[in-house]
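This week, study the protein below.
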Amino acid sequence: MAGWARPWRAMMYAISLGDDGAELRPLEPWQAEEFLAHMERGRELIGQHVGLADVVTDLESSRAFLQSYAQKAATDTGRIYGIWTDGKLVGGVLFRTMDIAQATAEAGCWLEPSAVGRGLVTRASRVIIDWAVEERGIHRVEWHVSAANAPSIAVARRLGMTKDGVLRESYLYRGKRRDMEIWSVLAPEWRTSS
């Protein structure tokens, strides 16, 4: 057993994102160290628009963040997934919120610099949105994005989402008031576009 490579570790719950070897897998508290290392590699880019970079700053906060999503998964109120390429965690997608009774969810994403421009977030988002619509009965998936975050807005467009509006100066981020765009796709639209 000592020389066994444990092939199930890489495959457990993995979903292929295409021919380039990228995979989508659940992110769990036991992966806190790997998640923190990923945050360190991507902190500057991720932190431009996403508060995750300010939340995950050490091993304890990394574990606590992933544990909060484990609790959301257990109560069916959210999910978090990592994107791996060549065995390395390079980004992720999540349902920040899920309300099964109302059939709504808010999706989001992040990437470290090495993974930008490869379509990983779009592919991963398609997988989780399809799951939410078809398996969990979600009717409306929202995408909340800083109006200054052009790459994330481009993902919303590629996913076939509609811009519902802009919440002007609706949140304070790093000392500055920011506009938040709300994009969405409804289940019937999703089914006809995918």
Summary: The chain is about 40% helix and 30% strand. The beta strands are 15-16, 23-26, 79-85, 88-99, 104-111, 140-146, 162-173, 176-186. Residues 1-11 have pLDDT under 50 and may be disordered. Residues 22-193 form a domain with the Aminopeptidase fold (CATH 3.40.630.30).
